[in-house]
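Weekly modeling sync, notes
Attendees: S.R. (lead), two postdocs, one rotation student

Agenda item 3: backlog of single-chain predictions. S.R. asked that every request posted to the team notebook include the full sequence so nobody has to chase files. The rotation student volunteered to paste the first one in as an example of the format we agreed on. Action items at the bottom.

Example entry:
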Amino acid sequence: MRSWTARHWLWATVAAVVIAAITGTVAGLIPNPVFTRMIEAPWWSYPVWLAAAVLSGLLVGTYAGPRTEQQRTRRGVVGTVLSFLAIGCPTCNKLVVLALGTNGALNWFGPVQPVLAIGSLALLGFALRARLRTTSACPSPVAA
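Predicted structure, as returned to the notebook:
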């Protein structure tokens, strides 16, 4: 496997920090005056939040190489979205409340969130593994 350059690590770090800040703020895991949770976050939300941010950042870092390496993947996007749904407050999610009502959000969507968390981390890990395999198989462009 080809080693990462400083550019890869920079993009991965910046992306992980930005993703953690955005998802943590909107999900109410980072205390802020704009978004507040109506229900306290379960203990597992914090490790899932950080793991998803790191995996998403590493996935973004794989795209920092030369243009010849660019390849689209939907798994990473789906994994990041699922992790956001997994760590968010069930009654704060307008779409869930609209579809299921407040009772449905608490009684149906709330218990499903740990499954979404596991699925999101699995998808992010699978997408990262696939990207690392793909990018390491690509030959480095030779300067003419």
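Discussion: group reviewed the output briefly. The longest helix spans residues 94-137.
Action items: rotation student to repeat for the remaining queue; S.R. to check formatting next week.
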